[in-house]
Amino acid sequence: MRDWLIVGGGLHGSHIARRLQAACPQAAVAVIDPAASALAAWRRRADACGMRFLRSSQAHHLGLKTAALRIHARENGYGREHSLGRYLRPSRALFEDHARTVAAPVDRIATHVEALEPVNGGWRIHAADGRRRQARNVVLAPGPAAPAQPHWGRQLPHLFDDDFAAHCAGRAATERIVVIGGGLTGVQYALDRADAGHEVTVIAPHRPRFAAFDSDPCNAGPACLVPFRLLPIEQRPQALERARNPGTVPADIHARLTAQLARGAIRWQQGMVRSLGERGPQLADGRTITADEVILATGFQPRVHELIERTAQRLELPLVTPALTRIDADLAWAPGLYVAGGPASLQLGAMAGNIRGAQLAGKRLARVAGAAERLSPASAALP
Q1: Longest dimension (CA), the chain
Q2: What is the enclosing helix (H) or strand (E) of 227?
């Protein structure tokens, strides 16, 4: 029986595993995830939208020390061109290289988790490979829910589809592409396609919007997190909505977009899509946007991952909203069962789903693990 098993071995799960390893060097820690590496889903989505730099600051990474990414850059020949702007936002190349290094010592089990159930002294994991594994503690960090598909476009390719790269293979450079969604992912993809010679139109319910981050930087630390945690649980979902900046892009992307809009390489159509016709999307005001191909950049479904949803139903564990679990200050949903990522936002705040959220969850779970180790009979017997 392992001491800690993290369901979901992506960026969040890998960082949490490293935190637990550091807090309890003798503990048996592993992540379980069908992907071969911690960066598989990350790379796929970054490739899809043409990401060049992260939106988060240099301080947000998978390492255990505040300056870990900066030190990695210096020691591995990454120059100033890999740090962007006031917050020294890292290049994708730098971040991924560092993340691979950090995640390498984590024991990975390559399979899909289908269910979990409580057993005496811990939890039993039912996996797609037919094996049943047990752990004293389980962390649910499976990532976001499935891509959001509007009712009128369920047949359309989505940037976050697992097979999106295969769908795009062999595309002609003259195709007229319509992108549904004016957030960071959609705008990055539009810029990437415009650079490749396509005629691109973005459809969004709003004009291009600028914000340095997807929420105010104070949500990364006590200035905003302490007042947030003092709110009653029932008021926190509304506070999260107020804290976030959906559908926005940072300054460098906004500048590139403005330049492409000015030269006509990208067109921006403000409106809501009502249906999909033979010629292209039809807007609520009657306009039809002609397209050879329509791509969805509509984010993820606003709900917890299906594994968390099934677990809530089967074990009658509480959700505050379809996207948020009711967990305590230690991120515990049940004894020995913890939640990280976006579903933990009621404890970790507006940045729970991003890299800073992984850091916050990792530190909190490391404290839990360290306290448990100090209180265990085995530890008490040590000289």
Answers
A1: 78
A2: helix 222-230
Residue 355 Rama label (left phi>0; alpha psi -120 to 50; beta): alpha
Q: Which residues contact 353 (CB under 8 A, 6 or more apart)?
A: 144, 341, 342, 345
**What dotted CATH number matches 151-209+247-296?**
3.50.50.60
Owner of token pair 């971040």:
95
Equal CATH topology for 2-146+301-380 and 151-209+247-296: yes
How does pLDDT run across 107-159, given as a tens digit for each residue? 999 999 999 999 988 999 999 999 999 999 999 999 999 999 999 999 999 99
Say what the pTM is: 0.94
How does strand 83-84 pair with strand 89-90? antiparallel
CA distance linking residue 251 with residue 65, whole number of Å: 28
Where in the chain are the domains? 2-146+301-380, 151-209+247-296
CATH of domain 2-146+301-380: 3.50.50.60
